[in-house]
Design brief:
Blueprint lengths: L9 H8 L9 H8 L10 E5 L7 H8 L1 H4 L3 E5 L9 H13 L3 H14 L4 H8 L3 H17 L1
Helix pairs in contact: 5-6, 6-7, 6-8, 7-8
Amino acid sequence: MAKKTGNDNRQLQSAKRAKNDEFYTQISDIEHELRHYRKQFHNKTILCNCDDPRVSNFFRHFLCSFCRLRIKKLIAVCYKNLNRLSEKAISQLKQEHRKAKTKWEADRLKTIYLLGEGWQPEVVGNILDRDKRTILAYYQNYKRCEMVH
């Protein structure tokens, strides 16, 4: 019997620390296994329960194979708030906020980074004395511009 070293699950522990559990669902493994079930996907609704559909290999596989497999509908559900901004984006917004020349610009930037951190629009509106519609418009305009760039 082989002696266990304690490092046998090093990759698993590293993924746990990095909060990256997609390492074990390689797209090639998914394709290899699901090729046996192609006929069963025809005209079916596929529900992917994943941490984040933007990085899920299962979701990516079904999205790329949607027409070929003749899937009726693809739905992804997750607990993650997909409207949150990255730490880098929030940091950049905070730097711009500190350099803002007008109160309006400072409030707009603060609105965007607070919503991007997960604050509720009503709370941000109360803090900055703005209505919810204005608060959401600031954020939606930012996200629209972010997608263009």
